[in-house]
Amino acid sequence: MKKFTKILCCVAMLGFFATCALTGCATVGNIKNTSQELIYNGNSAVMVEGYLYYGNAFADTSSFNNMTDYKNNAKLSYLARLNTNEALSAKTVDHSPKGVEMVTKDVNAHSRDFMFVLGQYIYYVTPNTQKATNSEGTASHYFNYSTLYRSKLNGNSKKKLYTTNGEVSNIEVLKTDGTYYVVMLAGENLIKINLSNNKSEVIAEGVKSVALPKTYEKNKFGSTLDWNGVIYYTTEEKNESGSGRTGSVVNCIQLSGGESKEIYSQGTTVEFIGREKDVIFFTEKKGSLETETYMRDCSQDIEEISTNRQLFISSSATAITDIRLVCSSARDLGFVYMVGSNMGFRRTNGSKGTIIFKNGTDAVSTFNVLLVSGRTAYLSTETAVFSADLSAVFAGTSTSVQLQKIVEMTAVQSGKLYAFDGDYIYYYAKLEEVEKEKDEDGNEIEPEPDDNYYLYRAKIGGVDKYDLLGLTQIESRRS
Predict the structure, then answer these.
(1) What phi and psi, each to the nearest 5 degrees, are found at residue 476?
(2) What is the per-residue pLDDT across 397-407, written as a single tens digit (0 to 9) for each?
């Protein structure tokens, strides 16, 4: 009887481990999300009921050559969680706090990072680990492709939702007709994933550019869930008539379903370069003529871009990127955008120019735009994170803006990874130097090397104080 009982126990344990392997067993305690809507704080972290979920340390996926590289980076770049309802318990601000938990073991902090929470699940993007076969029949890893996962907030019930066959150039979470969708352009495939049933669909192929509204951020002033429910994208014009005409076709499709419609084709090259709510931005070029940049409000005429469009800026040899809305509590004030390394602006009355940023008396000419909330832009350089009040620019009284330093660091990760919860801004940076420890004889002990970028946070008030949140590789920097 005892022998039979042991056999049953072994079978049960094997079943348990098999279930863990397939579904993922809880790695941390469970919490309950009381929000009915999407929670999105930016692409590198998300705050749920005071618990921060984040990629622990940044991984440079461009250096991945094989799965060994992936697994070695996953030891630090996993999805972590920290309870911020209580004061951080850390030896100093330069030591990792106590209580950092691993939620999943996937590489989570990377240049194409994206995460959000909906209901009792966290959704996150990792580098693709599946091998793909190229046109020559060779199977290789494409770590620049992406896989979307979801798991419960305790790490349980991990599920793969979609793996792309191309690099993701645009990804957003959008709500229409009461349903949330992940929409992304991966390579030339426009994909939607219905988050109510996890069904995925390639809604268009051969896509060259797309205009998607930005994911709703509760803590970002001016962000909204309201939009017209229509996605606009371009494909190449088909020369079926033998006319020799080449150019772009502008199409639109309802996200909730329906057939795609062709709405514009004039033998010109059209490219979408941005969207804010229902205002879409695109360039158009015909033959050897100059490229013009237009804006069009499609909130009413959802299938029209050729009429009532406005020239956004005059022809420019340098393409504009990164268009952001600037607004007050009463109305939209205009937009900012990047032209090369400069930030341009366009007010709602059509006047425009270039913003000059200064840090004290020094001009700041190299920076990344993390986000724009209301009339405040948040920028990062190689050594600092700043806020910039754009009120005077959009009031027409000045084009020079004095930056307010939020935090200064030895090395800030170059890119556009951020999170923002209204009180703190989150960013990746290298460890700061600390006073060297001494041995029993009073000799200084050389610290172990750690050249990784870890997640930090800083108060947006600009008091130059920060907290290290990532769990470091070296034991001596842990609390």
Answers:
(1) -70, -15
(2) 999 999 999 99
